[in-house]
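Support request from a user on the community tier.

User writes: "When I paste my structure tokens into the form, the page sometimes reloads and wipes my input. The last time it worked, I copied everything first. Here is what I submitted, just in case something in the input itself triggers the reload:"
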């Protein structure tokens, strides 16, 4: 097996077949919620996973504790959410654990050299342009448990939006909990129709084209506090691609209320530009 091109396709494809039905481009009409809670970590209604199934997943640690999730873009570049880094100008406080199913131990712990927050991100609301890029001090060595994931293109999204999405992380497992899961969890979600999502959040925040909405009509499955910055992935043209980054939501897993993810296609050019400048 060539580790550098390893892809955990079979197991995840089986998950698609057994854990989800094709609730594609869901359109729902819900009364607008009253309160927006920023998501700083969580997988609710999830299944335990092995890091070999999600080898692009990393835990971003702040001063030794799990803070957010992230996705491996290259040996030295991690993609995450901007709201995870209020202290973006102090990269020495952060490290990235890759290659482990547990955020507290195992795998490889790499120090962060630089943090790039999108220039239009506004920390006062932490909603729009919620994307960040981390540069590691030393490159990761790819293996079965440590792999990059490509950024979704517009063509990929045309295909992936009609498939099941996967979101993974070590966040809270119940709405409102501060406890983080010690082991990696994942759930399957479907993309919500954009206009429906805009209606749901109408009195809370303006849902832009840079945001992607995903969840389930019945609720019970969602990313949650502690999953922020983590990867939302879809399947397109024979490979898994990064389609979104966990950003925010109202509670966790509430019926008809999707989570909001930063849409990768809207920031693909910026991510690639930053990665080249490091």
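"...and here is what came back when it finally went through:"
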């Amino acid at each position: 097996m060539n580790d550098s091109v390893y892809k955990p396709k079979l197991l995840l494809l089986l998950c698609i077949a057994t854990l989800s039905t094709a609730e594609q481009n869901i359109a729902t009409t819900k009364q607008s919620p009253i309160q927006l809670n920023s998501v700083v970590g969580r997988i609710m209604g999830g299944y335990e996973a092995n890091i070999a199934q999600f080898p692009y997943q990393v835990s971003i640690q702040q001063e030794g504790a799990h803070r957010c999730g992230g996705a491996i873009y290259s040996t030295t570049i991690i993609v995450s959410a901007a709201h995870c880094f209020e202290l973006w100008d102090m990269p020495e406080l952060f490290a990235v654990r890759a290659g482990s199913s547990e955020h507290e131990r195992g795998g490889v712990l790499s120090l962060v050299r630089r943090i790039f927050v999108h220039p239009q991100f506004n920390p006062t609301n932490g909603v729009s342009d919620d994307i960040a890029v981390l540069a590691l001090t030393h490159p990761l060595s790819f293996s079965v448990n440590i792999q990059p994931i490509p950024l979704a293109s517009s063509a990929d999204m045309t295909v992936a939006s009609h498939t099941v999405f996967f979101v993974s992380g070590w966040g809270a497992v119940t709405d409102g909990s501060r406890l983080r899961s010690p082991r990696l969890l994942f759930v399957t979600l479907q993309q919500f129709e954009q206009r429906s999502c805009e209606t749901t959040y109408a009195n809370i925040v303006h849902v832009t084209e840079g945001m992607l909405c995903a969840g389930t009509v019945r609720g019970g499955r969602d990313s949650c506090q502690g999953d922020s910055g983590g990867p939302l992935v879809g399947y397109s043209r024979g490979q898994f691609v990064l389609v979104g980054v966990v950003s925010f939501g109202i509670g966790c897993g509430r019926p008809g209320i999707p989570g909001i993810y930063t849409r990768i296609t809207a920031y693909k050019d910026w991510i690639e530009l930053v990665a080249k400048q490091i």
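Agent notes: The reload is a front-end session timeout and is unrelated to the input. Confidence is low (pLDDT under 50) at residues 1-42. The CA atoms of residues 68 and 205 lie 22 Å apart. Escalated to web team.
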